[in-house]
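Readers of this paper often ask what the protein records in our data store actually look like. Nothing more is needed to write down the fold, since each code stands for a local backbone conformation. Below, we set out a record of this kind in full and without editing:
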Amino acid sequence: MPWVVNMTRSAQKQKAKLSKPVRQILYALIDDIEAGGPVRGDWPNYGKLTGGRHHCHLKKGNPTYVAVWEECDKKVKLVEVTYVGTHEKAPY
């Protein structure tokens, strides 16, 4: 059973501000999470945060873009993307 990935309203607004190449990388990440689950050790600078939250870099350089997501329900296999944007404003 594949994982279901939702985006919060604020993450959807943040996604709209991203450049097209970064947005395509985000879509690839979401596809990987849907197929393999929230633990994405094969993505650059992936890290597991406290409380079932995870993050990884979408684009290195200046500015660095990151995505933050959390496991909401393991039985239903639900993941929610909570932040997409620059590294400086990431909610770690």
Notes: The domain at 4-89 is CATH 3.30.2310.20 (YaeB-like fold). The beta strands are 4-7, 47-48, 53-59, 65-73, 78-86. Residues 4 and 25 are 18 Å apart (CA to CA). The longest strand covers residues 65-73.
